[in-house]
Design a protein that fits this description.
The longest helix has 33 residues. The chain has a seven-stranded mixed β-sheet with strand order 6-5-14-15-16-13-17, sandwiched between helices. It has a six-stranded mixed β-sheet with strand order 8-2-1-12-20-19, with helices on both faces. It starts with 9 loop residues before the first strand and ends with a helix. The chain contains 16 helices and 21 strands. Keywords: FAD, Flavoprotein, Oxidoreductase. One of its GO terms (molecular function) is monooxygenase activity. Belongs to the paxM FAD-dependent monooxygenase family.
Length: 471
């Protein structure tokens, strides 16, 4: 059985949701770590995230479930319609309560980010730390940052997004050795761009009474004449989080990619591009409100520094680790946000890694690489399923023959057939992993979760250590 001296030091590059979740879990596991973030401060960017049964059990274990519920708005319906006010269908999420004991919540991305950040001592998150060099050896990992600082540890985690510097350095080494798969050498593809933001608090009673209901719906609107989709989510704090997706054709996609390489070093564009998209889409009708409201009304209620335009890359990389270096979240799989799986899959990655790091018998490179192999083997299935589901949903809401057929089937297929045969709602909520090194939580609902191999492995080690301490 391993001792405290056998436990590794983990260097986490990237303070996004995945990196913060890993840090919060390692903090609970009493494992040494430091998080490095290239930005100088936290920016309140992004729209909303739907979080439900897939994470609520873990939040209970971490004792942050009540804090989360205080910032999350329960939601049981999504209204999908067209900009001529035709309602295509209503998606009902009430089954999750019966199946799992938990409902779904809408939470602003910055609010969830701040909740996770509070779980980590401030001195363990270092801002303004852009990684410049990485050395991965048999004995350990060393990183150098642009401020000429150096750090060393036993494990390096790249949680630094779709254009991960850690992945780039790792792939350069593997490519030089001739071991990097061809598909991992190809650029990140995308077929959509997205404008996101969140308004300042709004008087729902006066402007949007539909959102006064504590468990009211969110709205997804499809344009009948242009390649756009826009979604609006109410939050518990009275904000409206919104996103406008532009579904590109191949020619537009190529042009947009060339623009990105000229104007930016990552997937986020400058304020000029965001403002241009705001101007192009101001007239889009909203299917709610006391007057004939438009997206322009929401833009006017949104502070400029909370509006951003991003590209929606889609790819699952084949290579997730090498030596003592491993990737999580967008660094190894970038999903279209249509399926609302991106943040959840990143945090599930962090959980699986935390379980396996906790269960390490020692900090040798052999033991660490074996754990990484188990990590990818466990996560690749759920990630690929989420990737395919998100891609399929993005095709449904995009303007095209596949989307038209899918919407027709959704509107006219009997609900029980759609839920049990086409969507299989029970299958969608099976992946509810928990931490094996934290207290167990009672399984709720009528559908038990699938067994997480990493969670079971960590649970066995946790019980062994508990017995050893009590003897």
């Amino acid at each position: 059985m391993s001792t405290q001296a056998d436990r590794p030091t983990v260097l986490i590059v990237g303070a996004g949701l995945g990196g913060l979740m890993l840090g919060a879990l390692l903090e609970k596991a009493d494992i040494s770590y430091v998080i490095f973030e290239r930005s100088s401060s936290v920016k309140p960017l992004g729209s909303a995230i739907m979080v439900g049964p897939n994470l609520m059990g873990l939040f209970e274990q971490m004792n942050i479930d009540e804090e989360f519920k205080a910032i999350g708005k329960p939601t049981f319906d999504c209204v999908i319609g067209k900009d001529d006010m035709e309602v295509v269908c209503k998606v009902d999420f009430r089954h999750t309560v019966e199946y799992t004991g938990y409902c779904n919540y809408i939470v602003g991305r910055p609010a969830l980010y701040n909740l996770l950040l509070r779980q980590i001592p401030p001195h363990k998150v270092l801002f303004n730390k852009r990684v410049l060099k990485i050395a991965d050896t048999e004995e350990g990992v060393h990183i150098s940052t642009t401020d000429k600082s150096t750090y060393e540890g036993d494990i390096l985690v790249g949680a630094d997004g779709a254009y991960s510097a850690v992945r780039q350095r790792m792939y350069e080494t593997l490519k030089a050795a001739g071991t990097l798969p061809k598909s991992d050498q190809e650029d990140l593809p995308f077929k959509s761009t997205c404008l996101v933001g969140q308004t300042k608090p709004i008087d729902f009673a006066a402007a949007f009474p539909e959102f006064l209901d504590e468990s009211g719906p969110f709205y997804c609107t499809l344009s009948k004449t242009s390649p756009y989709t826009w979604t609006v989510f109410p939050t518990i704090n009275g904000n409206l989080c919104w996103m406008v997706m532009h579904h590109l054709d191949k020619e537009s996609s190529k042009a947009a990619e060339e623009h990105r390489f000229r104007e930016s070093d990552n997937s986020q564009w400058g304020s000029h591009a965001a403002q241009a998209m705001c101007d192009e889409t101001r007239h889009f009708i909203l299917p709610f409100g006391t007057k004939k409201a438009t997206m322009g009304d929401l833009y006017d209620l949104t502070p400029q520094d909370r509006i951003s335009k991003v590209m929606l890359e889609e790819k699952v990389f084949q290579t997730w680790y090498s030596g003592r270096t491993v990737l999580l979240g967008d660094a190894c799989h970038k999903l279209n946000p249509s399926g609302a799986h991106g943040a959840v899959t990143a945090m599930h990655d962090a959980l699986a890694l935390a379980n396996l790091i906790y269960a390490l018998p020692n900090k040798t490179s052999v033991a660490i690489e074996e754990a990484f192999s188990e990590y990818q083997a466990e996560r690749i299935g759920p990630v690929t399923a989420s990737y395919n589901a998100s891609k399929a949903l993005s095709m449904v809401i995009g303007r095209g023959p596949i989307g038209a057929i899918a919407l027709f089937l959704r509107k006219y297929t009997p609900l029980f057939i759609w839920d049990t045969v086409i969507v299989n709602k029970k299958k969608a909520i099976l992946d509810r992993p928990t931490a094996g090194f934290l207290r167990k939580v009672r399984t709720k609902g009528t559908v038990p979760p699938t067994v997480s191999p990493s969670g079971e492995k960590a649970r066995k080690v946790f019980e062994q250590r508990t017995r050893a301490v009590s003897v």
